[in-house]
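hi! just following up on the protien thing from before. the input was this:
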Amino acid sequence: MNDNTQPMPAVREASPFTAERTSQWTCNRLAGINPAKLNAQERKSLIQLARRLAEIAFKQRRLELTSPQVVREHLDASLLFLEHEVFVVVFLDNRHRLIAAEEMFRGTIDGASIHPREVVKRALQLNAASVIFAHNHPSGTSEPSEADKRLTIRLRDALALIDIRALDHIIVGADGGTSLAERGLI
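and the predicted 3d structure came back as:
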């Protein structure tokens, strides 16, 4: 490091009070919006804002994610309105607290190529104890396909070899979300 280089300033995280006040302000400001009166660009902007707010809230909580409903709420906001399929992995520590939620693969309107090796590699990099898989169905239905079920088993078995538990696979669709764990499929 030479003498002309300044050290990077420390990054500060927003306090919960600030995050709560921001959330209240946003809700109050947006409460009067009528979606039917928005043009296409305004709707798109509102969806992007909802995604960002959901991501911020999800990362700040650092809660124990023991309920599929908590995970599904975040994923609905993030994945529901996408026009292509996206596969996300939520990496958790040994107390089921969030380490990271990452988009691992992106596909077309009816599928995405998922590589178990890449999921295993990333889980090891993050020192995850467990994971939750999620992807959207742009068609709107959250009913798992046979391919979804086979993929879940392949990923679960690959991760089990290195003692990482697959807790759930959530499929997001306009008809709500489907948890494969709640259906006894994982």
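Residues 83 and 138 are 6 Å apart (CA to CA).
Strands lie at 86-92, 98-106, 130-136, 165-173, 176-179.
cheers
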